[in-house]
Amino acid sequence: MPALGYWSRCRIGEHDRLSCGYAVSERRRLVEEGVQVPTVQANGLDIYYEVQGEGEPVVLIPYLAVDQACYAFQLAEYAKHFTCFTVDLRGAGLSGKPEGSYTTELLADDIAGFMQAAGVDRAHVFGVSLGAATGMWLAAKYPARVQSLSLHSAWPGTDPFLRVVVESWRIIAQGLGSVTDMVIKGIFPWCFTPELYAARPEYIDSLAEFVRGRPMPPVDAFVRQSDAVLTHDARQVLGSIQAPTLITFGRHDQVTSTRFADPLTGGISGSELLVFEDCAHAPIYENVDEFNLRTQAFLQRHRG
Fold this sequence. Notes:
This protein is an alpha/beta fold. It is built from twelve helices and eight strands.
């Protein structure tokens, strides 16, 4: 029984996108029952992935702590025009969680190895936050593999404010003994505006339930993966990025705010900047329709 394509069978409409939590619990059940799930060996690591859609390949790289299911709200639209490869990063989801030092450069090496193992010679590369930091290293080190680059809620190098925020997440995770609870109580308030909490509390609750249905990493693996955020510094390699690049921010984001816009656009030649005015760190959830429309338009413009 193949594990590919569960998300393609989920309903992701305006009122039931979160029904896709079924896919995560079903995938976990398959693993527990010993059913083979799609993985490749790359860079000494078992990397879990899923594929859906048809067309030019898009590789979607997750953000901190979560598995590839984080892009459920985008896949329903993107898969109409592209073959979407969603990948679990080292230290999260169903991919390996080895000991050792994690860096965004190492995560990029993992993704390059994944692409080679999966037979994806060249792809549009898409990432949010940690996924974006990984994507910029991928584009800088492996330019032949990146057709276009989408960097959402990105930053070129960790500054003192971002360091304090991420260190606080580590303290919360260790104190609660739960990455799931840390995400909901510690990370969510940075991802969404106060207006969203006030206007749509039921939506916030449904997102929390979505997180609870995901295969979250143990605390030690989260700490290792968060090291990649704390040590991220791609400032010296931004000039090596050759792919057409879209850079987006939420206007109300504090974690990776528009303070990083000039360094990124100045460092990546010909890059485009887009700001979602009503969002914080996670426009992928706070303004799904506009995010999908604007980001897919960029992908369409740079099809081969």
